[in-house]
């Protein structure tokens, strides 16, 4: 792809999102279309390290950018002196808030964050200025040479203190409060258990750090090449910041090196565009690992207080909860995360009465935002901790207690919404409960890595205790509370080749592969290309909540069916029948009576067909003043059984096995589905044991992969997918459900449950600290 701009020259961007590889009959009985295990076409290039990402882009006359970030979590900006930085040889431009022509801020749901801090800095690492220079080292030196005088202010880093603190933002400290009331608030149970739970700040930690390239346009606008997951929203935010109409800003999506929410941050796009327009040259930035940790949003740290009421048989009577989410300095998607947390606060269990209060507040901590399973993951850890407490109090097997309370289709959420989608929660739990357990370790393990703590672990076999824990969880699919979920797709056929054009970004979730499968299934064409994404195409929305499988996949299917009608109608008319009497399969077109039989290639010869279609699910509604409303389009469920070995003297934990049963609706690509579940479980194990971005008085400590411990291949447990339930959701295209978020939600709770079983300790904090795993 080349830039439309003159002067700076051609920009090398990513190729089309994918082209169908020749199908391999040896791979299985289904070799193409829906149900086939098609491999992503870009998999070899990614494995070999040759796939082009934003960090690989280049343009003639390229300049390099660097961003100066605040060293304080809260301070007043007294003055900014850029003279020394601008005078350095090789420096072409320096920009601050004074160079921002537009008044709008940025933020995914609430645009309350300025491109550069103006009068105040509100978190450690907030952008204050940016530099463009002819070498990346020069740019960094120049950024460091900018003289900013700060007046440090008291930082509010405890969300509980945010309610009484002075306003940190013109919009105040309280972002949202949801008081959910369901049933009779005065009802009590025979058995009552209480708990206080804390969930840490998990980072998306993409292996590929953020990068981008901005190229000025001859019309005074700018093109930005970056790994956006919602290019049209990013374009609109950037245009408002630049003081330009949207048509003068173009976002071109490059290869996305992983996306679990962090790619929705627009913090780099603003300085890139401003510098490119000011210098008249292409400007590139490639974030360091530290800048990556400071620049994107994290999972909401959450404090949860719970009280569960049950009868003497263990059946839930009422759930009371208080949920406090730390949004950091800016709102971003915190209102949405809070809605999910409050709505799913009781989990996939039947609860006749509930009283839940949820708050999202601003602090001077780094911003929180959308990370896979937001809201649902935090409450799952808490309500499953409560279920373990109830089981211990009643002396009931923890799995049996859960079985007595599981939700099914037709039950009500505490929001009053009826669960109309398939909800086979009992079957999921039964599957993991009945799955064979892994063998116990020998008294003297032959391999040291079997001990918790790894090869160099100092533990003794006699101190190791095994624990088995269970967790059930749920997520919502698509947006919620009235979000207009719509996507547009175009399918073009020229002879034996089909092309799909849709602004749904391939982030690793497999949309490009799914789009090819849909066209193969519908049109019987083997060679299918998926075009690269930019904002010249109609919008398709963000890639969160598996929405592209549903909404964008549905748009591709509708467009492909329209092309199919264009293809079949002339043939049907020729033989005096309707198009519905013709079928397309294995590259052949046949009539119901066998009179007509031809190949798709012959029927398409010399023709060019195309169609554009939209998919828009049924509308939802916002939660009302008591937390009631049909806020969600659909839900997906999973059950996980965790088996852990814990050294009760050292507190080290080894996850031996994770058994997963999941409600998937319909398996569209078996290999891809398995990969998504395994990745989700591994991310959940990281949240349970190691992943926590440490903040001390608002300052991020050790923002690198030595201070932030991601699970490696050696830490990943055996993951057994014991059951996939294919009960199709009739309102979803293909009947499929979200695949990757729900194992992230459930796995941390399952690991915590297993550690409780091994140690007898309460384990009320994630990630689990060693001292919490020391038991008897």
Automatic annotation (TrEMBL):
Residues 1-32 are annotated as: Disordered. Gene3D superfamilies: Aldehyde oxidase/xanthine dehydrogenase, a/b hammerhead, Aldehyde oxidase/xanthine dehydrogenase, molybdopterin binding domain. InterPro entries: Ald_Oxase/Xan_DH_a/b (IPR000674), Ald_Oxase/Xan_DH_a/b_sf (IPR036856), Ald_Oxase/xanthine_DH-like (IPR016208), AldOxase/xan_DH_MoCoBD1 (IPR008274), AldOxase/xan_DH_MoCoBD2 (IPR046867), AldOxase/xan_DH_Mopterin-bd_sf (IPR037165). Pfam families: Ald_Xan_dh_C (PF01315), MoCoBD_1 (PF02738), MoCoBD_2 (PF20256). SUPFAM superfamilies: CO dehydrogenase molybdoprotein N-domain-like, Molybdenum cofactor-binding domain. Residues 48-154 form the Aldehyde oxidase/xanthine dehydrogenase a/b hammerhead domain. PANTHER family: XANTHINE DEHYDROGENASE, XANTHINE DEHYDROGENASE SUBUNIT D-RELATED. This is Xanthine dehydrogenase family protein molybdopterin-binding subunit. It comes from Streptomyces ovatisporus.
């Amino acid at each position: 792809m080349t830039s439309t701009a003159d002067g700076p020259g051609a920009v090398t961007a990513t190729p089309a999102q994918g082209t169908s590889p020749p199908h391999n009959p040896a791979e299985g009985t289904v070799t193409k279309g829906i149900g086939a295990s098609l491999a992503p076409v870009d998999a070899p290039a990614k494995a070999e390290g040759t796939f082009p990402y934003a960090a690989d882009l280049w343009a003639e006359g390229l300049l390099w950018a660097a961003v100066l970030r605040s060293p304080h979590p809260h301070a007043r900006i007294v003055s900014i002196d850029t003279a020394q930085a601008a005078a350095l040889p090789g420096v072409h431009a320096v920009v601050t808030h004074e160079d921002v022509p537009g008044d709008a801020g940025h933020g995914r749901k609430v645009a309350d964050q300025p491109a550069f801090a103006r009068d105040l800095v509100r978190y450690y690492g907030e952008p204050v200025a940016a530099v463009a220079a002819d070498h990346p080292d020069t740019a960094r030196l120049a950024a460091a040479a900018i003289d900013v005088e700060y007046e440090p202010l008291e930082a509010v880093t405890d969300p509980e203190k945010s309610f009484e603190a002075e306003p940190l933002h013109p919009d105040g400290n309280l972002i949202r409060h949801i008081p959910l009331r369901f049933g009779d608030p005065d009802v009590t149970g025979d058995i009552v258990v209480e708990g206080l739970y804390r969930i840490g700040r998990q980072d998306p930690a993409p292996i590929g750090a953020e990068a981008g390239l901005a190229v000025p346009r001859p019309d005074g606008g700018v093109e930005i090449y970056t790994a956006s997951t919602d290019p049209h929203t990013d374009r609109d935010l950037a245009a408002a910041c630049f003081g330009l109409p949207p048509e003068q800003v173009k976002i071109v999506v490059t290869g996305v090196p992983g996306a679990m929410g962090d790619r929705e941050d627009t913090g780099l796009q603003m300085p890139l565009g401003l510098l490119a327009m000011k210098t008249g040259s292409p400007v590139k930035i490639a974030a360091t690992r530290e800048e990556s940790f400071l620049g994107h949003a994290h999972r909401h740290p959450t404090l949860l207080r719970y009280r569960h009421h049950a009868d003497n048989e263990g059946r839930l009577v009422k759930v009371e909860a208080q949920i406090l989410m730390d949004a950091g300095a800016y709102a971003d998607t915190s209102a949405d995360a809070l809605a999910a947390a409050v709505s799913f606060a009781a989990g996939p269990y039947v609860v006749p009465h509930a009283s839940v209060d949820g708050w999202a507040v601003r602090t001077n901590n780094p911003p929180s935002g959308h990370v896979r399973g937001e809201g649902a993951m935090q409450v799952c850890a808490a309500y499953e901790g409560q279920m373990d407490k109830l089981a211990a109090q009643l002396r009931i097997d923890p799995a049996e207690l859960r079985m007595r309370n599981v939700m099914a289709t037709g039950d009500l959420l505490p929001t009053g919404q009826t669960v109309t989608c398939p909800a086979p929660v009992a079957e999921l739990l039964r599957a993991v409960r009945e799955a064979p357990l892994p063998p116990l370790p020998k008294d003297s393990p032959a391999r040291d890595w079997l001990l918790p703590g790894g090869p160099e672990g100092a533990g003794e076999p006699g101190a190791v205790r095994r624990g088995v824990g269970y967790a059930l969880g749920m997520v919502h699919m698509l947006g919620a509370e009235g979000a207009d979920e719509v996507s547009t797709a175009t399918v073009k056929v020229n002879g034996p080749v089909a092309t799909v054009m849709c602004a749904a970004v391939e982030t690793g979730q497999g949309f490009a592969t799914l789009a090819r499968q849909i066209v193969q299934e519908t049109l019987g064409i083997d060679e299918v290309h998926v075009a690269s994404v930019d904002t010249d195409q109609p919008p398709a929305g963000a890639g969160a909540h598996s929405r592209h499988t549903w909404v964008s996949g549905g748009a591709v299917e509708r467009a492909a069916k329209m092309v199919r009608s264009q293809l079949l109608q002339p043939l049907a008319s020729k033989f005096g029948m309707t198009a519905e009497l013709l079928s397309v399969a294995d590259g052949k077109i046949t009539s119901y009576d066998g009179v007509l039989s031809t190949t798709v290639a012959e029927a398409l010869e010399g023709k060019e067909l195309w169609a554009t279609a939209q998919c828009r699910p049924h509308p939802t509604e916002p939660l009302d003043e008591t937390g009631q409303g049909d806020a969600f389009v659909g839900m997906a469920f999973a059950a996980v059984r965790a088996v852990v070995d814990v050294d009760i003297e050292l507190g080290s934990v080894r996850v031996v096995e994770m058994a997963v049963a999941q409600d998937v609706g319909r398996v569209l690509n078996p290999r891809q589905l398995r990969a998504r579940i395994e990745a989700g479980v591994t991310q959940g194990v990281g949240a349970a044991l190691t992943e926590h971005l440490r903040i001390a008085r608002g300052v991020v400590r050790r923002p690198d992969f030595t201070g932030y411990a991601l699970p490696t291949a050696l830490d990943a447990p055996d993951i057994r997918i014991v059951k996939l339930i294919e009960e199709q959701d009739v309102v979803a295209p293909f009947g499929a459900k979200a695949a990757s978020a729900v194992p992230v939600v459930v796995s941390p709770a399952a690991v915590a449950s297993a550690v409780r079983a091994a140690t007898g300790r309460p384990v009320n904090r994630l990630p689990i600290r060693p001292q919490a795993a020391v038991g008897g």
